[in-house]
Hints:
The complex is a heterodimer. In chain A, 61% of the residues lie in helices and 10% in strands. Chain A is an alpha/beta fold. A five-stranded mixed sheet of chain A has the order 1-2-3-4-5, sandwiched between helices. In chain A, helix 1 (3-20) runs antiparallel to helix 2, helix 1 (3-20) packs parallel to helix 3 (45-67) and helix 7 (119-134) packs across helix 10. The longest helix of chain A is centred in the first third of the chain and has 23 residues, at 45-67. The N and C termini of chain A lie far apart (43 Å). Helix content of chain B is 70%, strand content 0%. Chains A and B meet through helix 1, helix 2, helix 3 and helix 7 of A and helix 1, helix 2, helix 6 and helix 7 of B.
Amino acid sequence: MQAKQIxxxxxxxxxxxxxxxxxxxxxxxxxxxxxxxxxxxxLTAKPFVIAFLLEVITDSRIWLIIKSLPSEEEQxxxxxxxxxxxxxxxxxxxxxxxxxxxxxxxxxxxxxxxGEFNQIDHDIIKSIxxxxxxxxxxxxxxxxxxxxMATDLIVSRNNQPLCIQITSVSEELNQQKYQAWxxxxxxxxxxxxxxxxxxxxxxxxxxxxxxxxxxxxxxLSGGKYLKFS
Amino acid sequence: xxxxxxxxxxxxxxxxFAEALATARQMQQNWLTYGVDFVNVYVDDVDGxxxxxxxxxxxxxxxxxxxxxxxxxxKDSVAIKVRQHLGERSLFDFAxxxxxxxxxxxxxxxxxxxINLLTDEENSVDTDDVKLLDLANSxxxxxxxxx
Lengths: 229, 147
């Protein structure tokens, strides 16, 4: 499709949402307004904005189908067709995002434009996801989770989703970042989280990060926010 | 006959849902393979001027928007109340969004949209719902007069 068709899809979903879930309609409207006001400052920004929009459209569509079902039983039947990690996203985190007053929403523009989506980090996150899949774990990646919920990936091996954030060990503000991460997770009522620092000089770091992530997805207790470096 | 139709509609729903979920899964798979470049699988002109021209169809040559802007800066008592209510928020953005809301055909949906526009998320605790509803209603009555 052509990129301008994304806008049409967004608008038609906003209209649809206005009768099914007004909070989602408001969110989508905010997004439309936000994109309208973006002054592209970086050549790399456009793919990320499109990726974000495609995800929002896909997730909103799923949400509206479920939300328009008349009974809780029917809605539950749809969630039962999902994998545990998808169910966690669509029945917990995504609706929380729809209904929350997301203070970070307003700094997304700067984040997206200022290249905070570092291509190197992005490639590392992708490598970790690939490794997780090879080891029969599963993952869910969402730009909403990244921008609002300080979550690069949601991972799971035995049906217990865990939110993880991955960061380079060389960052001077690591401790501050860890604290902010923890606060963000608490504010979204995310029960368990893992903050992973890596050292790019270590040749085996992807393998190590995946070991820690998968182990903790099985064993980390609720209410725990673990830092691993 | 009725049963048949219901079954059919239920099947459609399952199909729509299954298709939407399959789309989401495929998108994850494409992200896993291509990273952010997965967008090229779905969109032909990622690097085109879509971002620069995103709002153009709504802003350029839109006489309804002009009428709304003119009203919002006027001495009309409702316009004054709206300006006071918005405080430091952008009147232009509000006008653009109000014009969009005006396109909603269902009266109740349109009212909800205008209430949403007037709601200030950052100060939502202080929002008086009754006052907001009154203001949204008066604004829609005024718009019906001028548009």
